[in-house]
Design brief:
The complex is a heterodimer of chains A (396) and B (457).
Chain A (H helix, E strand, L loop, with lengths): L1 H17 L16 E7 L5 H4 L8 H5 L14 E2 L5 E2 L4 H8 L3 E8 L7 H10 L11 H9 L5 H4 E4 L14 E3 L9 H11 L5 H16 L11 H12 L7 E6 L14 H20 L6 E7 L19 E6 L7 E3 L20 E2 H12 L4 H8 L15
Helix pairs in contact in A: 6-13, 10-11
Chain B lengths: L3 H10 L5 H9 L1 H7 L14 H20 L4 H31 L3 H13 L14 H9 L7 H9 L2 H6 L11 H5 L7 H10 L9 H10 L3 E3 L14 E3 L9 E3 L2 E3 L4 H13 L1 H15 L6 H13 L4 H9 L15 H11 L6 H13 L17 H4 L2 H17 L3 H11 L5 H8 L4 H10 L7
Antiparallel strand pairs in B: 1-2, 3-4
Helix pairs in contact in B: 1-2, 1-3, 2-3, 4-5, 5-17, 7-8, 8-13, 11-12, 14-15, 15-16, 18-20, 20-23, 22-23
Classes of the chains: A alpha/beta (396), B mainly alpha (457).
Chain lengths: 396, 457
């Protein structure tokens, strides 16, 4: 009984949020059925290691021993446009770039420049310059507009342990994480569910948890594994390709805070890059024909210092890199209002100066790819913020 | 049936109601908690000290290097596997000792505080395997040993502990103007300094700048420990050592204050000032209130703790006494969702489960699957302390699976079930009824552990 009331209540809550925007989805009538994946790399991924500006005259001297070689050298960068290159570890990403499915951004950052991981992540995830006290993430707010008529819990999914702040809000979104625990027996589960009916906070979540499990296991057998990006990305694909599945998935992974001995084309950071590259190739494959309607946004809270620190690593910086991938993406280029690496052009003399607000990327994907109304974005998703990067998705 | 305050003393402040607490806690709940604040002896889990553990790791790594350098063969592959397993077994043994100590302690409030500060000054072996053997020792030496002292003492112990110095890279930080810095290309690493201000003391809005981060980083250059390549007989491997030749010379300015001291004293003076800063008082008060009251604690409760911190100059037992006396902490309107580690501990405590092989296996699988492996937080901020983070649909599903599996295989017997039912507070009637109607003791135990009631403290 209690659950029925809750369901009505939250559908009502969604309706209130979308009030005034009769059709927040602008091309709800056509045949597109777009999918969006957001992947957050936590810890501050070194953008200059991933997408080196090898053509910048100050690149080699500024990066010192972390500088990668020119495209014509052994283990040199893969050339992208004569100025930017790609770390050669990214073999699959390079292929996507060549196939115009990868759009790379340089000198991008959330609107925050003080180098705290946690604050920067909060800004990135709430989409607000002052995230303190904000109860919801920007993707959660976007889901309110996108899911029109559907429950956010069914439209947006968080994959992996923990729910990132970007999709936190009044109503929990769908969630799934891998595990290796035994399935409970039916009789006990029923008795237990009777108890959860009485808990208005946990009850609906528990039901959603078991539903998600059922949904994913019905596609190609039980998906088991550790809580790693590989398994989680597999799960994202299984959910997103379903006709009745969610359309937005979010996942995250850590291990990017390379203060010491980060290496260039081998070593700690290169290993992370390789893992990411493999996961992205797997995702593309698992998405199958739906890949053409997919955009994957990969962001990090900040870039790192241009110069090497005292321990062959890099410290927290500001401007970083971001990736937008997928069959729907107008890729094959690097988009950057490049500020330059000469000392006088660096932020506070040490970091790549951010010239693109990450919200412009998010807003662009929401509007151009997902079809979310601009007014809704400017008022609800990123209140008071009006920019967006144009030309992100392929025409037609 | 226990009263609400008895139940709360055991669950909210303690590590979960169980037979071990029952008699002591039920007579005088508040008095029982106060008694735990200053004790004669609290050795903690018996594990090798940090210096020994770090040396053991070096030895392990040497052996691995030797094997890797030897000729490739089937034998070598086997030896490598054995070596790998050996280290994992040692790590696991330490973590089990820590878990068992908490599961069996008769001072569970104290232990909760140890784990609270251990998480506040979090170290993680994720990507830093070198500290995995020494992390429980770190908790004993830097946290537990200073629980009866001041926050400043604890901070100093933390920042001078080899495990923290390694975890946040300070052992390699070299002052650019120091003799070593001038000789080589090594330089400053600001990681530890930044996290001290952001996560350990002032908090992110505590009013410091990038210059302050650099100043503190310089003041603690030279704070390191006897490392792998140590040849100096005066330096002991795995123990704190101040490397004077790495220390940035000269005065520094931090938060507008001048530090003219030389050497080790400079960093020490700065850390003591940071520990006593009003921003630190506010930050710690907020974290404590969040941990013991609710995700959104009442502002008055934070203010009372803050005042207590400032008045006592960060004397921890005084602060903790204030905490026990906070009305809000006893208000039935507030509740906290158990973290996976808290959940597992309370599950073992409620049935006083014997720490046998089967339970160990369940504990290990629980911590892995519920994503709170010991000393494995994803960032130096430690584990989140809020309901939302831990109670996602998928996390709840996993808890239920774990709870039912544990109940089914714990072999608790009827007596323990009856005891546990009796320990539930008066408002848990539905669960009591469900347990009494269960088809077997195993199902009753599972229902309790997997129930919504049992997820909160």
């Amino acid at each position: 009984m209690a659950s029925a009331i809750n369901r009505r209540q939250f559908i009502k809550a969604c309706a209130v949020l979308t009030l005034g925007f009769t059709t927040p989805i602008s091309f709800a009538q056509d045949h597109r059925d777009p999918r969006m994946v957001v992947l957050i790399l936590r810890g501050g991924m070194d953008g200059l290691a991933a997408v080196p500006a090898y053509g910048d005259p100050a690149y080699r001297s500024g990066r010192g021993k972390l500088a990668l070689g020119t495209p014509d050298t052994v283990e040199g960068v893969i050339d992208l446009d004569g100025f930017f290159g790609l770390n050669p570890v990214f073999e699959n990403l390079a292929q996507m770039y060549a196939g115009r499915e990868a759009l790379l951004f340089q000198a991008i950052a959330p609107p925050y420049a003080k180098r705290s991981h946690f604050y920067a992540q909060d800004v990135l995830e709430t989409g607000l310059t002052n995230p303190a006290g904000s109860a919801s993430g920007w993707l959660y707010r976007a889901l309110q507009g996108l899911s029109e008529g559907r429950n956010p819990e069914k439209y947006g999914y968080s994959l992996g342990a923990g729910i990132p702040r970007i999709v936190q809000g009044a109503v929990p979104v769908g969630a799934w994480a891998p595990d290796r625990l035994p399935d409970p027996d039916e009789d006990t589960l029923q008795r237990l569910m009777a108890l959860y009916e009485q808990d208005s906070y946990l009850g609906p979540k528990v039901r959603a948890g078991f539903n998600a499990d059922e949904m994913i296991n019905s596609m190609g057998g039980k998906l088991r594994g550790g809580n790693n990006l590989k398994t989680v990305a597999k799960a994202a694909a299984r959910f997103l390709i379903r006709d009745d599945g969610p359309r937005v998935a979010v996942m995250d992974c850590g291990g990017w805070d390379t203060h010491a001995w980060q290496g260039t084309t081998k070593g700690r950071l290169a290993n992370r890059f390789r893992e990411l590259d493999t996961v992205l190739a797997g995702l593309k494959q698992d998405m199958g024909s739906v890949w053409d309607q997919t955009a994957v946004v990969i962001v990090t809270e900040f870039g790192r210092t241009v110069a090497v620190n005292g321990t062959s690593g890099t410290d927290h910086g500001v401007g970083g890199a971001a990736f937008l991938l997928g069959g729907a993406v107008n890729g094959g280029r690097v988009q950057s209002d490049w500020p330059g690496l000469a000392k006088q052009n660096l932020y506070e003399g040490r970091d790549l100066k951010p010239t693109l607000d990450m919200r412009a990327l998010f807003a662009g994907v929401l509007h151009q790819h997902m079809g979310l109304d601009r007014g809704f974005i400017e008022e609800q998703v990123f209140p008071g913020y009006r920019d967006q990067v144009s030309g992100l998705v392929r025409a037609g | 049936m226990t009263t609400f305050s008895q139940y709360r003393a055991m669950n909210r402040f303690g590590l979960g109601a169980g037979p071990l607490d029952l008699n002591a806690a039920t007579a005088d709940p508040k008095g029982w908690l106060q008694q735990q604040l200053e004790v004669e002896q609290d050795p903690g889990p018996q594990v090798p000290d940090a210096a020994t553990s770090l040396s053991a790791f070096y030895e392990w790594r040497n052996e691995r290097k030797r094997l890797m350098g030897s000729e490739e063969s089937e034998n070598r592959a086997q030896e490598l596997t054995l070596l790998q397993r050996g280290l994992a077994a040692q790590e696991q043994s330490n973590f089990f000792k820590r878990f068992e100590y908490a599961a069996h302690t008769r001072t569970p409030f104290r232990e909760r505080l140890v784990q609270f500060y251990s998480n506040h000054f979090s170290v993680s072996r994720k990507g830093k395997r070198m500290i995995s053997l020494a992390s429980v020792a770190y908790e004993n030496e830097a946290i537990r040993a200073h629980l009866d002292s001041s926050f400043a003492d604890m901070l100093l112990a933390v920042v001078s502990h080899p495990v923290m110095l390694f975890y946040l890279d300070n052992n390699n930080s070299v002052g650019p103007g120091s003799p070593a810095g001038k000789r080589s290309k090594r330089g400053l690493n600001e990681n530890l300094a930044r996290e001290i201000m952001e996560l350990h003391t002032l908090s992110v809005n505590g009013g410091y700048t990038q210059q302050d981060v650099q100043a503190l980083a310089k003041m603690i250059t030279g704070w390191g420990f006897g490392g792998y390549n140590n040849r100096n007989p005066a330096i002991k491997q795995g123990e704190f050592f101040f490397y004077k030749q790495n220390h940035e010379p000269g005065p520094q300015v931090l938060l507008g204050r001048h530090y003219d001291f030389q050497g080790l004293e400079q960093g020490r003076a700065a850390l003591i000032d940071l520990a006593l800063d009003p921003s630190t008082a506010r930050f710690l008060a907020t974290k404590l209130a969040t941990h013991f009251i609710s995700d959104t604690p009442p502002p008055e409760a934070i203010s009372i703790l803050e005042r207590s911190f400032l008045d006592s100059r960060g004397h921890l037992p005084t602060l903790h006494r204030t905490l026990v006396n906070l009305e809000a902490a006893w208000d039935p309107a507030h509740k906290k969702f158990k973290t996976p580690n808290e959940y597992l501990l309370s599950a073992v405590r409620v049935f006083d489960l014997p720490f046998n092989g089967r339970i160990r296996k369940l504990i290990r699988s629980g911590l892995v699957n519920l994503n709170q492996r010991p000393f494995f937080a994803g960032s130096p901020a430690g584990w989140p302390d809020d309901t939302r983070y831990w109670s996602s649909a998928s996390a709840l599903k996993k808890r239920i699976e774990w709870g039912l599996a544990t109940g089914a295989s714990a072999n608790t017997g009827l007596h323990k079930i009856e005891q546990a039912v009796a320990m539930l507070p008066t408002d848990a009637g539905d669960l009591q009824l469900a347990m009494k109607r269960a088809a077997s003791p195993a199902q009753a135990a599972g229902l309790m552990l997997a129930s919504p009631e049992f997820q909160w403290r």
